[in-house]
Amino acid sequence: MFAARTTLRATSTRLFSTSSARHTKVTVLGAGGGIGQPLSLLLKQDPLVSSLSLYDIRGAPGVAADVSHVDTPSEVNGYAMEHLDAALEGTEVVVIPAGVPRKPGMTRDDLFNTNASIVRDLAAAVARVSPTAHILVISNPVNSTVPIVASTLEKAGVFDPARLFGVTTLDVVRASRFLASVTGTKPSECDVPVIGGHSGPTIVPLLSQVANSKAKGVQGESYDKLVYRIQFGGDEVVKAKDGAGSATLSMAYAGAKFANALLRGLNGEKGVVTPTFVKSPLFADKGIDFFSSLVELGVNGVEKIHPIGALSSQEEKLLEACLPELKKNIEKGKAFVA
Ligand SMILES: NC(=O)C1=CN([C@@H]2O[C@H](COP(=O)(O)OP(=O)(O)OC[C@H]3O[C@@H](n4cnc5c(N)ncnc54)[C@H](O)[C@@H]3O)[C@@H](O)[C@H]2O)C=CC1
Ligand SMILES: O=C([O-])CC(=O)C(=O)O
Q1: Can you tell me which residues form the catalytic site (predicted)?
Q2: Would you say the CB of residue 197 lies under 6 angstroms from ligand 1?
Protein backbone atom coordinates (compact mmCIF):
# COMPACT_ATOMS: atom_id res chain seq x y z
CA MET A 1 0.00 0.00 0.00
CA PHE A 2 2.79 2.45 0.80
CA ALA A 3 5.20 2.96 -2.02
CA ALA A 4 8.28 5.08 -2.28
CA ARG A 5 7.90 8.31 -4.17
CA THR A 6 8.07 7.88 -7.90
CA THR A 7 5.98 10.81 -9.00
CA LEU A 8 6.09 14.46 -8.09
CA ARG A 9 2.51 15.39 -8.79
CA ALA A 10 0.48 14.77 -5.65
CA THR A 11 -2.44 13.93 -7.91
CA SER A 12 -1.08 10.51 -8.86
CA THR A 13 -3.40 7.59 -8.14
CA ARG A 14 -1.17 6.40 -5.29
CA LEU A 15 -2.76 7.32 -1.96
CA PHE A 16 0.28 7.55 0.27
CA SER A 17 3.94 7.85 -0.36
CA THR A 18 6.77 8.75 1.93
CA SER A 19 10.32 9.80 1.31
CA SER A 20 11.34 11.03 4.71
CA ALA A 21 11.05 10.37 8.41
CA ARG A 22 9.67 13.46 10.18
CA HIS A 23 6.37 12.58 11.84
CA THR A 24 3.44 14.75 12.67
CA LYS A 25 0.44 15.10 14.96
CA VAL A 26 -2.77 15.47 12.96
CA THR A 27 -6.14 16.46 14.42
CA VAL A 28 -9.49 15.73 12.76
CA LEU A 29 -12.37 18.02 13.81
CA GLY A 30 -15.61 16.23 12.91
CA ALA A 31 -14.04 12.78 13.21
CA GLY A 32 -17.32 11.06 14.08
CA GLY A 33 -19.02 11.91 10.80
CA GLY A 34 -19.46 10.29 7.42
CA ILE A 35 -16.16 11.71 6.17
CA GLY A 36 -14.43 11.91 9.53
CA GLN A 37 -14.56 8.18 10.27
CA PRO A 38 -13.04 6.79 7.06
CA LEU A 39 -10.65 9.76 6.89
CA SER A 40 -9.41 8.90 10.38
CA LEU A 41 -8.92 5.30 9.32
CA LEU A 42 -6.91 6.36 6.26
CA LEU A 43 -4.81 8.82 8.26
CA LYS A 44 -4.04 5.99 10.70
CA GLN A 45 -2.41 4.24 7.75
CA ASP A 46 -0.33 7.23 6.66
CA PRO A 47 3.27 6.58 7.70
CA LEU A 48 3.88 10.34 8.07
CA VAL A 49 1.28 10.65 10.84
CA SER A 50 2.71 9.82 14.26
CA SER A 51 -0.23 10.91 16.38
CA LEU A 52 -3.90 11.19 15.48
CA SER A 53 -6.25 13.28 17.55
CA LEU A 54 -9.96 12.72 16.87
CA TYR A 55 -12.56 15.27 17.98
CA ASP A 56 -16.30 15.60 17.42
CA ILE A 57 -19.28 16.89 19.35
CA ARG A 58 -20.42 13.26 19.34
CA GLY A 59 -18.81 9.88 18.97
CA ALA A 60 -15.10 10.66 18.63
CA PRO A 61 -13.85 8.55 21.59
CA GLY A 62 -15.58 5.50 20.09
CA VAL A 63 -14.11 6.12 16.64
CA ALA A 64 -10.69 6.58 18.24
CA ALA A 65 -10.96 3.33 20.23
CA ASP A 66 -11.88 1.50 17.03
CA VAL A 67 -9.22 3.06 14.77
CA SER A 68 -6.54 2.68 17.47
CA HIS A 69 -6.56 -1.11 17.03
CA VAL A 70 -5.21 -0.84 13.48
CA ASP A 71 -1.64 -2.19 13.49
CA THR A 72 0.28 0.88 12.39
CA PRO A 73 2.67 2.80 14.70
CA SER A 74 0.70 6.04 15.20
CA GLU A 75 -1.05 6.66 18.51
CA VAL A 76 -4.73 7.64 18.49
CA ASN A 77 -6.70 9.69 21.03
CA GLY A 78 -10.39 10.56 21.00
CA TYR A 79 -11.86 13.72 22.52
CA ALA A 80 -15.45 14.45 23.49
CA MET A 81 -17.15 17.80 23.00
CA GLU A 82 -15.76 19.62 26.05
CA HIS A 83 -12.16 18.69 25.23
CA LEU A 84 -11.56 20.62 22.03
CA ASP A 85 -8.50 22.43 23.42
CA ALA A 86 -6.89 19.15 24.48
CA ALA A 87 -7.54 17.71 21.01
CA LEU A 88 -5.71 20.65 19.44
CA GLU A 89 -2.79 20.84 21.87
CA GLY A 90 0.53 20.57 19.98
CA THR A 91 -1.04 19.66 16.66
CA GLU A 92 0.70 20.63 13.41
CA VAL A 93 -2.09 19.76 10.98
CA VAL A 94 -5.84 20.22 11.54
CA VAL A 95 -8.34 18.69 9.12
CA ILE A 96 -11.90 20.03 9.36
CA PRO A 97 -14.80 17.95 7.97
CA ALA A 98 -17.23 19.19 10.69
CA GLY A 99 -20.62 20.40 9.53
CA VAL A 100 -23.79 19.30 7.81
CA PRO A 101 -23.85 17.73 4.33
CA ARG A 102 -26.33 18.40 1.49
CA LYS A 103 -29.62 16.69 0.83
CA PRO A 104 -31.09 16.41 -2.70
CA GLY A 105 -32.22 19.78 -4.07
CA MET A 106 -29.73 21.78 -1.98
CA THR A 107 -26.70 23.71 -3.18
CA ARG A 108 -23.51 23.84 -1.18
CA ASP A 109 -24.31 27.48 -0.43
CA ASP A 110 -27.51 26.30 1.31
CA LEU A 111 -25.20 24.83 3.98
CA PHE A 112 -23.73 28.25 4.78
CA ASN A 113 -26.15 29.17 7.58
CA THR A 114 -25.29 26.06 9.60
CA ASN A 115 -21.66 25.46 8.71
CA ALA A 116 -20.33 29.04 8.79
CA SER A 117 -20.54 29.31 12.58
CA ILE A 118 -19.25 25.75 13.13
CA VAL A 119 -16.16 26.47 11.05
CA ARG A 120 -15.64 29.95 12.55
CA ASP A 121 -15.75 28.60 16.11
CA LEU A 122 -13.37 25.74 15.33
CA ALA A 123 -10.98 28.17 13.60
CA ALA A 124 -11.07 30.42 16.66
CA ALA A 125 -10.07 27.45 18.83
CA VAL A 126 -7.19 26.60 16.47
CA ALA A 127 -6.07 30.25 16.60
CA ARG A 128 -6.03 30.11 20.39
CA VAL A 129 -4.52 26.66 21.01
CA SER A 130 -2.40 25.78 17.98
CA PRO A 131 -1.93 29.04 16.04
CA THR A 132 0.85 27.71 13.82
CA ALA A 133 -1.05 24.61 12.67
CA HIS A 134 -1.77 24.00 8.99
CA ILE A 135 -5.54 23.95 8.46
CA LEU A 136 -7.27 21.82 5.81
CA VAL A 137 -10.89 22.85 5.30
CA ILE A 138 -13.29 20.23 3.94
CA SER A 139 -16.59 21.64 5.31
CA ASN A 140 -18.83 23.18 2.66
CA PRO A 141 -19.32 25.63 1.11
CA VAL A 142 -15.51 25.58 0.75
CA ASN A 143 -15.56 28.78 -1.35
CA SER A 144 -16.90 30.57 1.75
CA THR A 145 -15.61 28.49 4.67
CA VAL A 146 -11.96 29.05 3.73
CA PRO A 147 -12.38 32.88 3.78
CA ILE A 148 -14.25 32.45 7.10
CA VAL A 149 -11.26 30.60 8.58
CA ALA A 150 -8.84 33.19 7.14
CA SER A 151 -10.81 36.14 8.57
CA THR A 152 -11.14 34.42 11.95
CA LEU A 153 -7.39 33.80 12.12
CA GLU A 154 -6.75 37.36 10.93
CA LYS A 155 -8.93 38.73 13.73
CA ALA A 156 -6.89 36.69 16.19
CA GLY A 157 -3.68 38.06 14.64
CA VAL A 158 -2.35 34.64 13.60
CA PHE A 159 -3.28 34.28 9.90
CA ASP A 160 -0.51 32.89 7.71
CA PRO A 161 -1.76 32.31 4.13
CA ALA A 162 0.87 29.59 3.67
CA ARG A 163 -0.93 27.44 6.22
CA LEU A 164 -4.56 27.49 5.07
CA PHE A 165 -5.96 25.12 2.41
CA GLY A 166 -9.41 24.46 1.02
CA VAL A 167 -9.47 20.78 0.06
CA THR A 168 -10.54 20.56 -3.59
CA THR A 169 -8.82 17.22 -4.16
CA LEU A 170 -12.10 15.39 -4.73
CA ASP A 171 -12.61 17.44 -7.91
CA VAL A 172 -9.14 16.39 -9.06
CA VAL A 173 -9.78 12.73 -8.19
CA ARG A 174 -13.10 12.79 -10.06
CA ALA A 175 -11.61 14.53 -13.09
CA SER A 176 -8.91 11.89 -13.29
CA ARG A 177 -11.33 8.98 -12.86
CA PHE A 178 -13.94 10.31 -15.30
CA LEU A 179 -11.39 11.28 -17.98
CA ALA A 180 -9.84 7.81 -17.72
CA SER A 181 -13.28 6.23 -18.28
CA VAL A 182 -13.97 8.39 -21.34
CA THR A 183 -10.56 7.79 -22.92
CA GLY A 184 -10.17 4.13 -21.93
CA THR A 185 -6.88 4.93 -20.17
CA LYS A 186 -5.68 4.68 -16.57
CA PRO A 187 -6.45 7.41 -14.00
CA SER A 188 -2.69 7.60 -13.37
CA GLU A 189 -2.35 8.82 -16.96
CA CYS A 190 -5.04 11.47 -16.48
CA ASP A 191 -3.59 14.11 -14.20
CA VAL A 192 -6.08 16.99 -14.57
CA PRO A 193 -5.38 20.41 -13.05
CA VAL A 194 -8.72 21.64 -11.66
CA ILE A 195 -8.78 25.34 -10.81
CA GLY A 196 -11.24 27.90 -9.40
CA GLY A 197 -13.35 26.86 -6.43
CA HIS A 198 -15.42 23.92 -5.19
CA SER A 199 -19.01 24.20 -6.42
CA GLY A 200 -20.64 23.68 -9.82
CA PRO A 201 -19.51 26.38 -12.26
CA THR A 202 -16.62 27.49 -10.04
CA ILE A 203 -14.96 24.10 -10.70
CA VAL A 204 -12.82 24.55 -13.84
CA PRO A 205 -11.04 21.45 -15.17
CA LEU A 206 -8.15 22.20 -17.53
CA LEU A 207 -8.39 19.20 -19.82
CA SER A 208 -6.24 20.94 -22.45
CA GLN A 209 -3.28 20.69 -20.03
CA VAL A 210 -3.47 16.92 -19.59
CA ALA A 211 -0.35 15.26 -20.98
CA ASN A 212 -2.24 12.12 -22.13
CA SER A 213 -2.73 12.60 -25.90
CA LYS A 214 -6.09 10.80 -25.81
CA ALA A 215 -7.48 13.62 -23.63
CA LYS A 216 -7.10 15.96 -26.63
CA GLY A 217 -9.52 13.73 -28.53
CA VAL A 218 -12.38 14.46 -26.10
CA GLN A 219 -14.29 17.08 -28.04
CA GLY A 220 -17.80 18.36 -28.73
CA GLU A 221 -20.62 16.73 -26.79
CA SER A 222 -18.29 14.31 -24.98
CA TYR A 223 -16.20 17.27 -23.76
CA ASP A 224 -19.29 19.13 -22.52
CA LYS A 225 -20.59 16.03 -20.75
CA LEU A 226 -17.24 15.33 -19.14
CA VAL A 227 -16.87 18.90 -17.86
CA TYR A 228 -20.44 18.83 -16.51
CA ARG A 229 -19.77 15.54 -14.72
CA ILE A 230 -16.61 16.91 -13.09
CA GLN A 231 -18.42 20.10 -12.03
CA PHE A 232 -21.51 18.33 -10.72
CA GLY A 233 -20.05 14.99 -9.55
CA GLY A 234 -21.09 15.87 -6.00
CA ASP A 235 -24.75 16.04 -7.09
CA GLU A 236 -24.52 12.51 -8.51
CA VAL A 237 -23.63 11.19 -5.06
CA VAL A 238 -26.16 13.35 -3.20
CA LYS A 239 -28.90 12.06 -5.52
CA ALA A 240 -27.83 8.42 -5.23
CA LYS A 241 -27.67 8.63 -1.42
CA ASP A 242 -31.21 9.97 -1.53
CA GLY A 243 -31.26 12.06 1.64
CA ALA A 244 -28.54 10.16 3.52
CA GLY A 245 -25.82 12.74 2.81
CA SER A 246 -23.14 13.45 0.24
CA ALA A 247 -19.79 11.97 -0.76
CA THR A 248 -18.02 10.56 2.28
CA LEU A 249 -15.80 7.66 1.16
CA SER A 250 -14.33 9.29 -1.94
CA MET A 251 -13.95 12.50 0.09
CA ALA A 252 -12.11 10.65 2.85
CA TYR A 253 -9.79 9.22 0.17
CA ALA A 254 -9.27 12.69 -1.32
CA GLY A 255 -8.73 14.27 2.12
CA ALA A 256 -6.15 11.65 3.10
CA LYS A 257 -4.43 12.10 -0.25
CA PHE A 258 -4.16 15.87 0.18
CA ALA A 259 -3.02 15.49 3.80
CA ASN A 260 -0.27 13.11 2.65
CA ALA A 261 0.82 15.59 -0.04
CA LEU A 262 1.04 18.36 2.57
CA LEU A 263 2.94 16.14 5.00
CA ARG A 264 5.43 15.22 2.28
CA GLY A 265 5.95 18.92 1.56
CA LEU A 266 6.35 19.70 5.28
CA ASN A 267 8.91 16.89 5.41
CA GLY A 268 11.03 18.64 2.81
CA GLU A 269 10.11 16.61 -0.25
CA LYS A 270 10.53 18.76 -3.35
CA GLY A 271 8.14 19.09 -6.26
CA VAL A 272 4.88 18.15 -4.48
CA VAL A 273 2.36 20.02 -6.61
CA THR A 274 -1.42 19.74 -6.43
CA PRO A 275 -4.47 22.00 -6.81
CA THR A 276 -5.77 23.54 -3.58
CA PHE A 277 -7.91 26.57 -2.70
CA VAL A 278 -5.63 29.12 -1.05
CA LYS A 279 -5.17 32.86 -0.58
CA SER A 280 -3.89 33.65 -4.04
CA PRO A 281 -2.66 36.63 -6.04
CA LEU A 282 -3.82 35.16 -9.38
CA PHE A 283 -7.13 37.08 -9.61
CA ALA A 284 -6.62 39.53 -6.75
CA ASP A 285 -6.86 42.39 -9.28
CA LYS A 286 -10.47 41.30 -9.86
CA GLY A 287 -11.18 41.31 -6.10
CA ILE A 288 -10.89 37.51 -5.84
CA ASP A 289 -8.26 36.73 -3.26
CA PHE A 290 -8.85 32.99 -2.82
CA PHE A 291 -8.42 30.66 -5.76
CA SER A 292 -7.53 27.05 -6.42
CA SER A 293 -4.66 26.38 -8.78
CA LEU A 294 -1.61 24.15 -8.83
CA VAL A 295 0.29 24.86 -5.63
CA GLU A 296 3.71 23.58 -4.65
CA LEU A 297 3.73 22.37 -1.05
CA GLY A 298 6.89 22.73 1.01
CA VAL A 299 8.30 22.92 4.54
CA ASN A 300 6.19 25.99 5.34
CA GLY A 301 3.01 24.84 3.56
CA VAL A 302 2.30 26.89 0.43
CA GLU A 303 5.69 27.19 -1.29
CA LYS A 304 4.66 28.48 -4.70
CA ILE A 305 1.38 29.26 -6.44
CA HIS A 306 1.70 28.32 -10.09
CA PRO A 307 0.15 30.45 -12.82
CA ILE A 308 -2.88 28.86 -14.48
CA GLY A 309 -1.05 28.45 -17.79
CA ALA A 310 -2.49 28.51 -21.31
CA LEU A 311 -6.24 27.90 -21.59
CA SER A 312 -8.32 26.70 -24.54
CA SER A 313 -11.18 28.97 -25.67
CA GLN A 314 -13.63 26.62 -23.90
CA GLU A 315 -11.66 26.90 -20.67
CA GLU A 316 -11.59 30.69 -20.99
CA LYS A 317 -15.40 30.58 -21.03
CA LEU A 318 -15.53 28.25 -18.03
CA LEU A 319 -13.24 30.62 -16.13
CA GLU A 320 -15.42 33.58 -17.07
CA ALA A 321 -18.43 31.78 -15.57
CA CYS A 322 -16.45 30.80 -12.46
CA LEU A 323 -15.09 34.17 -11.35
CA PRO A 324 -18.25 36.17 -10.49
CA GLU A 325 -19.78 33.25 -8.57
CA LEU A 326 -16.54 32.62 -6.70
CA LYS A 327 -16.22 36.29 -5.83
CA LYS A 328 -19.74 36.30 -4.37
CA ASN A 329 -19.02 33.17 -2.28
CA ILE A 330 -15.76 34.61 -0.93
CA GLU A 331 -17.34 37.93 -0.03
CA LYS A 332 -20.18 36.15 1.78
CA GLY A 333 -17.64 34.28 3.92
CA LYS A 334 -15.67 37.42 4.75
CA ALA A 335 -18.82 39.40 5.57
CA PHE A 336 -19.91 36.70 8.01
CA VAL A 337 -16.83 37.19 10.17
CA ALA A 338 -16.68 40.98 9.75
N1 LIG B 1 -14.55 19.62 0.25
C2 LIG B 1 -15.20 18.65 -0.34
O3 LIG B 1 -14.84 18.26 -1.46
C4 LIG B 1 -16.34 17.97 0.32
C5 LIG B 1 -16.92 18.52 1.45
N6 LIG B 1 -17.95 17.89 2.08
C7 LIG B 1 -18.52 18.55 3.26
O8 LIG B 1 -17.98 17.98 4.45
C9 LIG B 1 -18.87 18.22 5.55
C10 LIG B 1 -19.09 16.97 6.38
O11 LIG B 1 -19.76 15.99 5.62
P12 LIG B 1 -20.16 14.58 6.28
O13 LIG B 1 -19.00 14.01 7.00
O14 LIG B 1 -20.80 13.78 5.21
O15 LIG B 1 -21.25 15.02 7.34
P16 LIG B 1 -21.73 14.26 8.67
O17 LIG B 1 -22.97 14.92 9.13
O18 LIG B 1 -21.76 12.79 8.41
O19 LIG B 1 -20.56 14.53 9.69
C20 LIG B 1 -20.28 15.80 10.17
C21 LIG B 1 -19.74 15.67 11.57
O22 LIG B 1 -19.43 16.96 12.06
C23 LIG B 1 -19.72 16.94 13.43
N24 LIG B 1 -19.83 18.29 13.95
C25 LIG B 1 -20.85 19.19 13.83
N26 LIG B 1 -20.56 20.31 14.49
C27 LIG B 1 -19.32 20.14 15.01
C28 LIG B 1 -18.46 20.95 15.80
N29 LIG B 1 -18.82 22.17 16.19
N30 LIG B 1 -17.27 20.45 16.17
C31 LIG B 1 -16.89 19.21 15.79
N32 LIG B 1 -17.67 18.38 15.05
C33 LIG B 1 -18.86 18.86 14.68
C34 LIG B 1 -21.01 16.14 13.55
O35 LIG B 1 -21.23 15.69 14.88
C36 LIG B 1 -20.74 15.03 12.57
O37 LIG B 1 -20.14 13.91 13.19
C38 LIG B 1 -20.15 18.78 4.91
O39 LIG B 1 -20.18 20.18 5.05
C40 LIG B 1 -20.00 18.40 3.44
O41 LIG B 1 -20.73 19.23 2.59
C42 LIG B 1 -18.43 16.70 1.64
C43 LIG B 1 -17.86 16.08 0.54
C44 LIG B 1 -16.81 16.69 -0.23
O1 LIG C 1 -21.67 17.61 -3.17
C2 LIG C 1 -21.53 17.87 -1.96
O3 LIG C 1 -22.33 18.52 -1.28
C4 LIG C 1 -20.30 17.35 -1.30
C5 LIG C 1 -19.14 17.79 -2.08
O6 LIG C 1 -18.65 18.88 -1.93
C7 LIG C 1 -18.70 16.93 -3.18
O8 LIG C 1 -19.07 15.74 -3.24
O9 LIG C 1 -17.97 17.42 -4.05
Answers
A1: 198 (proton acceptor)
A2: no
Q: Taking the model in full, what pTM does it have?
A: 0.96
pLDDT tens-place string over residues 205-232 = 999 999 988 988 999 999 999 999 999 9
**Res. 14 pLDDT band, cuts 50 70 90:** low
CA-245 nearest atom, ligand 1: 14
Architecture category of domain 20-166 in CATH? 3-Layer(aba) Sandwich (3.40)
The dihedrals phi and psi of 217, each to the nearest 5 degrees, come to -80, -5
User: CA-to-CA distance for 130 and 94, rounded, in angstroms?
Assistant: 9
Tell me if domain 20-166 and domain 169-333 are identical in fold: no
251 C-beta closer than 6 A to ligand 1: yes
Cis peptide before 205 (omega within 30 of 0): no
Sequence spans of domains, the chain: 20-166, 169-333
Q: Give, in words, the CATH class of 169-333.
A: alpha beta
The CA distance from 147 to 159, in Å, is 11
Please confirm, yes or no, whether 198 is among the known catalytic residues.
Answer: yes
